[in-house]
Amino acid sequence: MNGPSLALRQRSLGDPSAEFPLFPPLTRGCPKTSTDEIAYPLEVAYDYARVDRGLFTQEPGTDIARWSPLLPPLEAPTLGEGGTPLLPFEDVFIKDESRNPTWSHKDRLNRVVVSAAVASGAPGVVVASSGNHGASAAAYAARAGLPAIVLTSADSPPAVQDFVRAYGAKVVSVPPEARWPLLREIVDRLGYHPVSNQTVTHTGHPFGPEGYKTMAYELFVQLGRVPAAVFAPTGYAELLFGMWKGFVELQLLGLAERAPRMFSCETASGGPHARALATGAPAAIVELGPSDAYGISGTVGGHRGVLAVRDSGGEAVLVTDEEMRRAQRDLARQGMWQELSGLAGVAGYRRLRRDFDGPVVCVATSSGFKDLGVGTERYPVLENPTLADVMS
Amino acid sequence: MNGPSLALRQRSLGDPSAEFPLFPPLTRGCPKTSTDEIAYPLEVAYDYARVDRGLFTQEPGTDIARWSPLLPPLEAPTLGEGGTPLLPFEDVFIKDESRNPTWSHKDRLNRVVVSAAVASGAPGVVVASSGNHGASAAAYAARAGLPAIVLTSADSPPAVQDFVRAYGAKVVSVPPEARWPLLREIVDRLGYHPVSNQTVTHTGHPFGPEGYKTMAYELFVQLGRVPAAVFAPTGYAELLFGMWKGFVELQLLGLAERAPRMFSCETASGGPHARALATGAPAAIVELGPSDAYGISGTVGGHRGVLAVRDSGGEAVLVTDEEMRRAQRDLARQGMWQELSGLAGVAGYRRLRRDFDGPVVCVATSSGFKDLGVGTERYPVLENPTLADVMS
Q1: In A, residues 17-76, which contact B (CB 8 Å cutoff)?
Q2: Digit-coded pLDDT (tens) for A67-103
Q3: Complete domains list, chain A, with CATH
Q4: For the Tryptophan synthase beta chain-like PALP domain, which residue ranges apply (chains A, B) (predicted)?
Q5: In sequence order, what are the beta bridge partners of B338?
Q6: Distance (Å, rounded) from C-alpha B231 to C-alpha B345?
Q7: CA of A380 vs chain B CAs: smallest distance (Å)
Q8: Would the ipTM clear 0.90, i.e. be above it?
Q9: Is B99 in the A-facing interface, judged by CB distances under 8 Å?
Q10: Closest residue of A to B82, CA-based?
C-alpha cells in the first residue's frame, strides 16, 4: 500500500550494538546478551532516513499495511485490523481495540507475526494461549492458509474456548505447565513458527510489538499530536513497548517534539513489571494471586515493559479486580462493554489521578464477551408483566 | 463534521405524495395510507440539490457523522460506528459489520434513532429485542444519557442476555407475546421513544434505515464503484432497504450510473418478504418454523424489503440453517467468525450462484460470540500430552 518494508535487521534490547539479520526471527531472545536468569528480547531496526513523512497525513483505516514502510514485511493477508476509534470518556480518551477482526488488540501483533511465519516458509504456527492471542493467531494463520496449533488450558471462559476453536486450528487443552515443553517440541520437531514466548523471562516474538506501533501512529493522527500519557493493560508488556517504540519513532522522524509517559497497568495479584521497576532488575518473575483479569495475569515479566516505563518517565501501576470492575461498569454505562483485563488502563489512570499537560489515552483492549462468568447467569422471566412491574 | 443535516421531511412509502414534517418521527407508520392489514413505513426526504459531492471522496471512518448532510440530525453522540472493512472471500466481498461498537450493524441504525429520541426531547427509549438491536439501543441511549427499557425474551443465548444488560438499561425478560402491548404502554404513558416496530406489518422507526445508507456510501468509496449485487441477511429488511436507498441516492446525485440488485436472504423457516414478493402483496405475515438464526427469524415482514428487492431487480432467497452453518464454518476458516444469522447473505449468494457483471457484496452483520450454543460445550483436557497426542 505504502511501499515496501524499510526493516533492516534485528537488534538486541540487551545491547543495541548486538545486531542480527532480519530473518530468521530470533524467537528465543538475544543469543548474545541473555543469561540463565534474564532473557533479552530483540527489536526491529529500520532505515528511517528513507521514511516518507507523508505516511502520517493518512487517516487511520482498517489495514495496518498503510504503515508498511515501518513494519516488517507483511506477507500474511489482512483481516482488516487497526483503524479503531478514539472515544472520549470522563477526562481521557479510550482507544477501543475491541473493534479489531477478532475483537482485541492482538490482531495487530498477529498480522505481523503470522507474516513472519509465512516469510520464513514455516509449515504452520504454534501458540500457547487460552484467549485472545490464541484466537487471533488462529484467525490470521487460517487467512494465510497456514495450519495452526493452539495449546490452551481449561480455565478460560467456555465462550472463549469456542472462539479459539472457531477458526479451524488444532486446539488442544492441556495442563498449564505442559504448554511450554510441548510448544518447544512442536517448534523443534515440526518446524512450526512460534508466536508465544519460549524464554525464562518474557521475550516473545521479536516482530510482535511492531504491530502495536501502529496504535501510536493512529493516536498521533487522531489527536493531531502525541498524547501526554498512555495507560495500557499490561501482561507481557508487548503492547506498552510497541506503542512506546512508535512514539519514539515519531520523535526520531521529527514529527513529534516529545513522547508520552507510558504507564504499565498490571493486576495487583501479580505485577512482574512493577516488581522489576521497583527493584531495578531488567525483568522479574513473581508469585501470582487470584484475579479474574485472566488476560493479563502472569508470573513472568520481560525487559520491554521495563524499558518503556523507565525511558518514558512513566510508572508501574497495580490495580485490583474491584477497580477494574468499577471501570468496566462505568465504561459500559457510556456504551462501551469491555473485557475486565482490558480495563486495567482505565483503572490505572483513575488510581493515579495525576495531572498531565495534554491528552491522556487509556487503551481498552477487548470485548466484554470474553470475560469469565459471561453467560452463566439466568434471569427470571416476568409472567403477565404490567407497566408497574417493568418500572419497579 | 460535514455540515448540517439536509433532511427536509418524512414521506410515505405507501404514497410518495403523502408528506409530513420531519418531527415528530411517525413511529406507527404512515397515517394516510396504512390499512388494518398493511402498515406502510415512512422514509426521510432530503434537499439533494444542496449536497456537496465532495462528501464521497472521503475515506470511510468510524463515525457516520461524516455523512451528516444525508442523515437526520445526529443529536446523539457517536460510539465510533461505521468504517467497517470490506474483505475478499471466495468470489465475493464481505462487509464485516461485526466491527461496530456493539459488534453488529445495528449500531448504524441506533445512532440515528437514539438521535431522534434526543431531538424529540423524549425522557427515554424503549425497545423490544432479545439480541443485537436491544444491546445497541441500550449502548447508544447510555452514551446519550437517556434511560432505556429493553423488553427481552428468555430464549436468547445466555451471553447475549448479559450483553443486553451490560449497558445499564432496565432489561425485563417477559413472554414474547407480552412485549408489544407493554412497548405501546411505555410509549403512551411514559412518553418513551420507541426504537421497535408498533404496527401490524413492519414499519419500524422512519429514520432507522437512514443509518444503514452509510453502508452503501462506504461500499461505493471502498470499491470505487457500486457493486453489481448485494446479499443481505434479512429479518425486517431495514438493512436491505437502507442500503438500497443509499445506492439510489448515489445515482440521483450523478455519482453512480446504476444501483445494484438487492437480494433479501431470509431463513427458510419463515420468509415473510419472499412470501410478499411471490404473491405480489405489499407485505406479508408467515408462520415460522424452527431455526437457530434467531437474529433474522420473524413472522412479520414489511413493505421496505419488498420495494428494495422489486425496484432493484433483485430476488428473495431463502436459506436453511445448514447452509448458514456451512457459510459460518467456511468464513471462520478464512479468519472471520460471524453469527449464524449474519451469514444468510453469504448462504444466499452461494445458493443462487449467479453471474453478475461486477463485484458482489455479502453483508456479514455480527460476531460469532452472539450465537446460540456458544459456551455450552465442554472440551476434555489432555493430561500428560505428548506430541503424538497433539498431532493425532
Answers
A1: 59-63
A2: 999 999 999 999 999 999 999 999 999 999 999 999 9
A3: 1-105+199-369 (3.40.50.1100), 106-194 (3.40.50.1100)
A4: 78-365
A5: B367
A6: 5
A7: 7
A8: yes
A9: yes
A10: A85
